[in-house]
Design a protein that fits this description.
The chain is of the alpha/beta class. It has one domain (3-282): Thiamin diphosphate (ThDP)-binding fold, Pyr/PP domains (Rossmann fold, 3-Layer(aba) Sandwich), CATH 3.40.50.970. The protein has ten helices and seven strands. A hairpin with a 2-residue loop joins strand 4 (181-182) and strand 5 (185-186). Belongs to the transketolase family.
Length: 283
Amino acid sequence: MEKQELKRLKLAACQLRMDVVTQVHAARSGHPGGALSSAEIFTWLYQKELRVDPAQPKAPGRDRLVLSKGHSSPGYYSALCRRGFFAPELLTTFRAPGSILQGHPDMKKVPGVDMTTGSLGQGVSAACGMALSAKLFGDDYRVYALLGDGEVEEGQVWEAAMFAAHKKLDNMCWIVDCNGLQIDGRVEDVAGIEPLDKKFEGFGFEVIKVADGNDLEQLEEAFNKARAVTGKPTVLLAKTVKGKGVSYMEDQAGWHGAAPNDEQYEQAMSELRAAMQEVENNG
């Protein structure tokens, strides 16, 4: 990746984090931790990976993304907004009565949302249906699904995984945001899921491990590998930091679903503006 392009994407990830904090603070509720950990993933998907057109959000040949961990919607909304699907002014209406930007994404209201999600585990089943449809009708679009590591405790995830491998859905890529935390604490303490790579391999997936899922160059390499896989679905296991970019939120389960107060908001925005300035100065 050229240096200027990497800088552009880093700035976009910084902006996404600022948007996440702004939305959750404005609403006085929401889930910032997992949205912040996925910032580079959202950025890569909407700035580089997905073939989408904001002018034609329902174009039949578009690539699809299912946000299976729907509570991370502030990151999703920022990615859609900055890609041009709706105006930035709407972000501050997050979770407000009458707003299209509710706590979980609604495909009937938000331009660019391909599937309404909420209950964990269900999104990947919808993604399987989309990918199978493409196979049956000879369409060349790809389907992506973003889920959390806590979410893979859901049995439906593994039913979908078994189905995906059986149907050889090589046009589908799952991304697991492995930030190690969920609402009740550390994933390993709530219901240990490791070895996750071996489990997905056992279910017939091509597994690509991303040592640092907050590193755009590592994501580039992983997504390039995923597109080359044939005969089976792919999963990216991306190691990230919950609350990434805001010092007091990082690796803290309490920020899974909590909103910053005014003082915390100012601190977060100050840190994120400094991070953006660092990128501007040094790339």
